[in-house]
User: Fold this.
Amino acid sequence: MRATVWVAGFLVLVLVVAAYGSQELLQLQTDDKQWVMPGKDYSQTRFSTLSQINPRNVKNLRPAWTFSTGTLRGHEGAPLVVGDTMYVHTSFPNNVYALDLKGPDVGRIKWAYLPKQDPSVQAVACCDNVNRGLSFADGKVFLSQLDGHLVALDAKTGKEAWKVQNADPKVGATMTSAPHIYKDKVIVGVSGGEFGVRGHVTAYNVKDGQQVWRAYSMGPDEDLLLADDFNQANPHFGQRKQGTETWQGDQWKTGGGTTWGWYAFDPQLNLFYYGTGNPSTWNPSQRPGDNKWSMTIFARDVDTGKAKWGYQMTPWDAWDYDGVNEMILADLKIGGKPVKALVHFDRNGFGYTLDRTNGSLLVAEKFDPAVNWATGVDKKTGRPIEVAAMRTEAGKNSQGVCPAALGSKDQQPASFSPRTSLFYVPTNHVCMDYEPFEVKYTAGQPYVGATLRMFPGPGGHMGAVIAWDAATGKIVWSNKERFSAWSGTLVTATDLVFYGTLEGYMKALDAKTGKELWRFKTPSGIIGNPITYIGPDGKQYVAILSGVGGWAGIGLAAGLEGDSEGLGAVGAYKKLAEYTTLGGVLTVFSLP
Amino acid sequence: MKRIMVVAVVLTFALSLASATRAQQTPGQAASAAFRVCADPNNLPYSNDKLEGFENKIAALFAKDLGTTATYTWWPDRRGFIRNTLRANQCDVVIGVPNGYDQVRWTTPYYRSSYAFVFVKEGKFRVRSWDDERLRHARIGVIAATPPADALIKKGLMGNVAAYRLTIDYTTEYPGKIVDDVAAGKIDLAIVWGPVAGYFAKKAAVPVEVVAVPPLEGVPVPFTYAISMGVRKRDKDRQEQLEALLRKHETQIRTILVEYGVPLVEGPLVRKPDEEKRGVVGERYQ
Assistant:
């Protein structure tokens, strides 16, 4: 029976590879035996129909095999499973391994791609030289390298099919996010907002790497690629010329708004969705204005790059709440009516539900009750209702701002189960004192920057995994974590939610209640995203990369030194070092 | 890069052996004998890997006093610099940090400078005041994020600004470009941090003047900053060692600074007190 299913799956694979192009991924993503794109499917649900592992037997889950990635820095993202091969990426220098899932030597390295990158690009990378993984299409595996190169590898041999430069690290632009493949295009973003990079998304042909279009986050309308009917349904969000007129002078040229998150795609609407990051420079008093279109959810046509709508969540950002977090597409019922929704959990602490056809704002509620920089979002204008005391500005110390700059949630992606109609969201529960008057020094030039002093939010814990009802904007359950929940989540048709913790525990919760059903301590803290697949032996596997780092490894470990030990948070963070140390390892679990 | 690091490590080891035999040492020297400096390989007038910057000269002066030579860990001076060098224990001393820079333990400052108007001496934009009408018609060069931007926003002059990047391509660009653009007439005026302004003005193709900017009412951001040395937060011994060296070599340091054209702002140099604050200092995440 299992064998039959596998053979059938294989046939499907053969057929779609033959009919490559826009149909290929559409079909592949419906085969839950594989995990062919970072978010599992175009909608980024991270939902799998696999059901061998269920709430009754999950307690028996144990490691089947492991693989050392050989690199030490933070491991975000997840492997891909295509056919009987698993593709694993590493942190800098962004090695790629193709692992054989067939026995007898499961995990044998079929090929390795070891890019030679100038080590000096690490100096440019903001935080920890992370990489968020690979994409697959047309017999190729796609990798975004830290040094700004987008590389297409032959999935069979690991040989470079083509390679283009998308970002210039010498001026601070790097690439950390996974490429996204929609139809015949690879779409990639850029990192480096703090260096004054002007963010953009760019489409390349899957076939040959030819650039098709590039759309900037700010600047003149022709750079933004606005459709003629841009924001027609919501003119109050802003339409023409906003990319320059909401800035002083030519500040938009170094305006930030980078694009390093997880995108989603609706093939019916032909629109893809992504968020832009914080405006540059650091100091909000130096860039008065809404700073559009930083902090914005954009919907763009895949073929032309033209923006159909854009909604700015945090105008004139003063907290560093990048708007890049994952976009999840789900068909929900809101007030009894079916809605083609886009759901987004922003760094700013609000869970947004929008009509993805036109950008209309339907729900915007706090997904951590601690959020205090705004009391809510005005549904009519779409603007946050700010608390004046919490807006950081020159000469003012803003104390106890929640969330901290790293957000109520960072890039670690949530999942959506159509069975429960709930979203499973890994969150941070960390607040900050924001002192914009701290003196900084870059390239030998003193200036006034901001120092963020972070500490646990009310209750003393630093994170939680929550179940969220995006139709009403309510938390259904919340499972507290000692440290921030810095891993993505996975939800299955058996109502299991998988995620990892900074201490290194891989956990399974009951999706209905949040009750913990299983845990296993992996070799290092987890900031990667769990996946599930069926191996050639017909068994269901769950895989996760551990390898602490990212913000957790740098912001915490490096920030610790000598700084106010004994003042609560430091003690709490310091504990992380008691649980884990660096090192990338893939752990694959199965039932006995 | 790698080769330089290896050489530096070997050198450090050899020198620590050599200096172990020396008896005479500056008071407060309890830390290891090698003088290990964290510095930018390409950031004149401060430092470069040919040891041509004024920070290189000061480091050499101190190392000599300690009976050793300065060894270097090179890293571009931008975010991650302290994390990857000083905190990673690759080196022990950063020669220039602002007084009160909370990434490090700072010493008593050893000089103070100011942001300055930079203009062609014989030109039309000899601006010395924020109220000068000529600012309205000038193309003004400013490095993004630096304090003059606050003043220009206050004055409603952002529309006149030519923005220069704070972090540049460290392989092909140089921080003095903004001053050279003034000399070449590409911009009418620049407002630049003193040491950069003074050094490149001295070398400019036409005579260029550097005038400290005055304070501006309603702009709380300071334009003058005192500069200290930095060590790891717990490295109090080394701080004391440096304090002693700074006092001992005050005159020579001043001579070096003047030689490099650093505009000095007079006044008492007082160390900002240490601060105990709650929480963990965060870095922005991407």
Summary: Chain B has a mean pLDDT of 86. Helices of chain B lie at 2-20, 54-65, 81-84, 148-154, 177-183, 194-203, 236-248, 250-259.
